[in-house]
Amino acid sequence: MGLIEIIVLAILQGLTEFLPISSSAHLILPSQMFGWDDQGLAFDVAVHAGSLFAVVLYFRNEVSAMTVSWVKSFSGRKDKESNLAWLIILGVIPAGLIGFALDDFIEGNLRSSAVIATTTIIFGLLLWYADATAKQNTDEYQVTVKKVLIIGFAQVLALIPGTSRSGITITAGLMVGLTRQAAARFSFLLSIPLILAAGGYQTLKLAQQTMPVDWAAIGLGTLLSFVSAYACIHYFLILVEKIGMLPFVIYRLLLGAILIFFFI
Fold first, then answer.
1. Element (H, E) at 248
2. What share of the chain is helix, strand, coil (3-state, %, to 5)?
3. Strand pairing partners for 138?
């Protein structure tokens, strides 16, 4: 990979992992526009690791509190932090199991420009509907098992390229009554075990390969992904309460139109 490829793809991955605008759509654009080759599994693992480090560091206080309380819950000492930890674990099970089962099918059949353009538009409109009509009267500590299962099964749709994992989980969160801030925070916390599981699975696949690894590209990609993801989380949480989801909906519609016009 060239230096420009590393910089563009790593920053795009870091930004789009957490914004509700679909990382798949953004990663396909530069490769098709400039004729870049696939970045490879090792680089994919690296940039996802950067995103994971960013979200864990940003929510370090919450993650620490939930981890301690979760461990204590095995001895019967339960509180709102341990409850949230258990609900996050529950929320990732549907996407984790179904994603593991359908990984090869999705890679082979759904990574087309037509699919990505269609889902970018459809789920962008769904995000707009949720943001415009939802009650938005609870926070992440008030979610119930039923609401978490709704969000968890909605997250399964993110296995379809172009849907956006953060987009669909924020949409579902809004629909079950979470505020914008709470829906975004819950989506980000939900991403931690999912990215960790997906990264572990990809690492196992990578270990079975014998191709040489460009460690300089890996290191730079991880760093840039980390920085862009951290900045994205910080400013998204600030802006979402002020501007809502409409700018991201408009962006998704424009992006879907561009994909249709140029690549279909």
1. helix 246-263
2. 80, 0, 20
3. 178
Q: For residue 130, what are the CA distances in angstroms to 116, 169, 180, 213?
A: 21, 11, 10, 43
When divided into structural domains, the chain yields a total of 1
Taking the CA of residue 22 as centre, how many other CA atoms within 13 Å lie in the half-sphere pointing to its CB? Answer: 33
Rg (CA), the chain: 18
Are 157 and 123 in contact, with CB atoms under 8 Å apart?
Answer: yes
Residue matched to tokens 């709704």? 150
Segments forming the whole domain that contains residue 28: 3-263
What the block records as the tokens of 131 is: 């943001």
> Can you give the length of the chain in residues?
264
Q: Which two tokens stand for residue 89?
A: 């674990």
Q: How far is CA 170 from the centre of its chain?
A: 10
How is residue 55 written in tokens? Answer: 């979200």
- pTM here is 0.91
Alpha-carbon gap, residue 137 to 161, rounded angstroms: 31
Q: What is the dihedral of CA 209, 191, 194, 91, to 10 degrees?
A: -170
Q: Nearest-CA neighbor of 18 among 161, 241, 190?
A: 190
Number of H helices and E strands in the chain, helices first, is 11, 0
CA atoms within 13 A on the CB side of 194: 28
| pLDDT of the chain, 264 residues: tens digit per residue | 788 888 998 999 899 889 999 887 787 777 777 777 766 667 878 888 899 999 999 999 999 999 999 999 999 888 999 999 999 999 999 988 898 788 778 777 777 888 889 999 999 999 999 999 988 889 999 999 999 999 999 999 988 988 999 999 999 999 999 999 999 999 999 999 988 887 887 777 777 777 777 788 889 999 999 999 999 999 999 999 889 999 999 999 999 998 888 777
